[in-house]
Amino acid sequence: MTTPQMPQTPEELIKVFKGTTELMTNFATHQGQEMVKEFTKAWNELSTQFVNNPQQWVETFANYQRDQLKLWARMFDIQMGKETQPVVKPAAGDRRFSAKEWQENPVFDYLKQSYLLASNLLLNMAESADLDDAHQKKLRFYTKYFIDAMSPTNFTLTNPEILKQAAETKGQSLLDGLKNLLGDLEKGRISMTDEAAFSLGKNLAVTPGAVVFENELIQLIQYAPTTPNVLDRPLVIVPPCINKFYILDLQESNSFVKYAIDQGNTVFMISWINPEKSQSQYSWDDYIETGVLKAFEVVKEITDAKKINAASWCVGGTLLATALAVLHDRKKQAQIASATFFTTMLDFKEPGEIGVFIDQSQVEQRESQLKQTGVLSGKDLALAFSMLRANDLIWSYVVNNYLKGQTPAPFDILYWNSDSTNLPADMYSYYLRNLYLDNKLVQPGALTICNTAIDLTKIKTPSYFLSTIDDHIAPWTSTFINTQLFTGPIEFVLGASGHIAGVINPPYKNKRNYWMEGELGKESADWLNTAKSVPGSWWPHWSEWLKKRGGAEIPAPTLFGNATHKPIEQAPGRYVMKRIA
Q1: What pLDDT is stored for residue 581 in this prediction?
Q2: Is 468:498 a contact under the CB 8 Å cutoff?
Q3: Strand 463-468 relative to strand 336-342: parallel, antiparallel, unpaired?
Q4: Which residues neighbour 544 within 8 Å (Cβ) at sequence distance 6 or greater?
């Protein structure tokens, strides 16, 4: 990318300001009109309740005004030298007001507390609304999102840290921030890391391997062994198609792929396409038949293995479970010795925070857009996930990059997070409607995929389910339901942290903990109450579980592929290199 040029003329400045407004509106409102529409709709419903039950709201506003008067009185007490206590404090974990200026400067301390009081007022109103569960969650989410967007920390003149830095640098920090903003205008997204610090195949996704098969949907990568002998049942990884596979192969120190290889497994990885508009017709069936099942077939041909092991993550696990149901109907389920599912949802009744974006009207609006675009933009999907943690994943970068003029530090996971993947219109629409909206995957016979009536209860494959306790994308209480869907042997493990950090937790760091051996067959809370906590990474536990299903030891292969499936190119392959413009 070319280095962005600073504007020199009034016309150029106007152009920049227009572009800035468009970019920030998109960041702030998630495609603007849709966000404002949903927010307005939710608060209109709340306003109706205000008319019908004014007493409740009168009391709420009276409490707010009382606290504001306390805050004013506190200002006068400070001027008179009296010791005072804050009227309101930031919530635990809120790092926005951690700088000393927010405590020591009376003006900014007042501004902070006044904002927090107003925030609490709106949140309390949203919480006390008499709405059904779905509308209540939506009101709460959109209210918090707009409150966070309006924080005084997000604006130059109301953030003492920014003003101090601008004074100390004689305005250079603001110019650097404008330069950063111009660069992000070119990319159409906020930079969360120093993207120049990473390059696929050089310092990310560097585990040696080769692409040994490709079709219109996938490349299949075979990795080089690191042990003289390997287990004769290869491991095939099905990553999510909404992200790129190298989250499992970042750098040598935190590569799950390398760890699995070092444990004596022959590892294969599916690398999904990054589709364009011309590929909008690819369906869920295609992702199963031409993707997952084709990869299994090729791996068996290359290795001559009678059985293989499979591992998956997120929607990759949803695809894997569907594929296992298809294999059962074809009398081929026994070919899969085991299946591993990382943070995978199969029952979508309680989808977690992402559910605020998914209802009938929003899906219909999205489908209307897909008719024009042909694909769901990976940038839109990434923004939706970022909105779930807006202070950490949006506003903190707006402040640091654009207002303070700082360059984000190199961080491999955030580089991966910015490397988005599109989804074909047909596949995405099917996914939203049949799984999220109608929850049909867990209804025996409700879906016909690859000419098969899907019934997850017929899956007898030994399965390992890994969930994470702070997962906001696939809540562990929802993924725990998976243990009650299959009829084969089940191992359930709960890792600490969230959807990404809870999975990418290499043993050498000896970080976090995990829970295991809870009582299955009851509710998730019962399982956790009876489980034992183990310090460190869950990776070794999974490896031991997999070895019991890995078969006999054989000499490690010395070549990639075979006579039929010859190496096409080195890993990580072309498909993963394609970035969204």
Answers
A1: 64
A2: yes
A3: parallel
A4: none
Contacts of 559 (CB under 8 A, 6+ apart): none
Determine the Cα angle at 162 with ends 157 and 163, to 5°.
60
Q: Tokens representing 507?
A: 């043993």
The predicted model scores a pTM of 0.89
Report the alpha-carbon distance of residue 175 to residue 160 in Å, rounded: 17
User: Distance (Å, rounded) from C-alpha 578 to C-alpha 581?
Assistant: 9
Compute the distance between CA of residue 481 and CA of residue 474 in angstroms, rounded to an integer.
12
Residue type, 131: L
Q: How far apart are CA 492 and CA 514, in angstroms?
A: 11
Smallest Cα–Cα separation from 183: which of 319, 416, 5? 5
Residues marked as catalytic: 314
End-to-end C-alpha distance for the chain, whole angstroms: 11
Compute the distance between CA of residue 368 and CA of residue 130 in angstroms, rounded to an integer.
32
Q: Is the predicted pLDDT of residue 34 greater than 60, yes or no?
A: no
Q: Residue 237's closest CA among 296, 289, 285, 282?
A: 296
Q: 400 is written with which tokens? A: 């640091």
Instruction: Single out the residue of 411, 338, 425, 343 nearest to residue 380, CA to CA.
Output: 425
Whole-angstrom distance, CA of residue 571 vs CA of residue 575: 10
> Token pair of 180, please?
């950063």
State the Cα angle at 408 between 404 and 413, rounded to 5°: 150
Q: Tell me the helix, strand and coil percentages in the chain, rounded to 5.
A: 50, 15, 35
Q: 3-class secondary structure for 99-117?
A: CCHHHHCHHHHHHHHHHHH
Tokens 């995978």 sit on residue: 344
What single DSSP character describes residue 403? I
Residues 223 and 208: beta-carbon distance below 8 Å: yes
Number of alpha helices (DSSP H) and beta strands (DSSP E) in the chain: 21, 17
Residue 300 phi, psi (nearest 5) = -65, -35
Rounded Cα gap, residues 295 and 200, in angstroms? 23
Q: What is the pLDDT of residues 287-299, one digit of tens each?
A: 999 999 999 999 9
pLDDT band at 189 (very low <50, low <70, confident <90, very high): confident
pLDDT digits (tens, 9 = 90+) for 433-453: 999 999 999 999 999 999 999
**Rg, the chain, Cα only:** 26
In 3D space, the residue among 467, 243, 499 whose CA is nearest the CA of residue 341 turns out to be 467
With vertex at residue 567, the alpha carbon angle to CA 563 and CA 569, rounded to the nearest 5 degrees, is 165
For residues 400 and 402, what is the distance between their CA atoms, to the nearest angstrom? 6
Taken in order of first residue, the domains within the chain and their CATH numbers are 209-352+440-577 (3.40.50.1820)
In the block, which residue shows the tokens 């292969």?
557
Burial bucket for residue 327 (CB in 10 Å: 0-12, 13-18, 19+)? buried
Residues 73-88: what's their mean pLDDT? 81
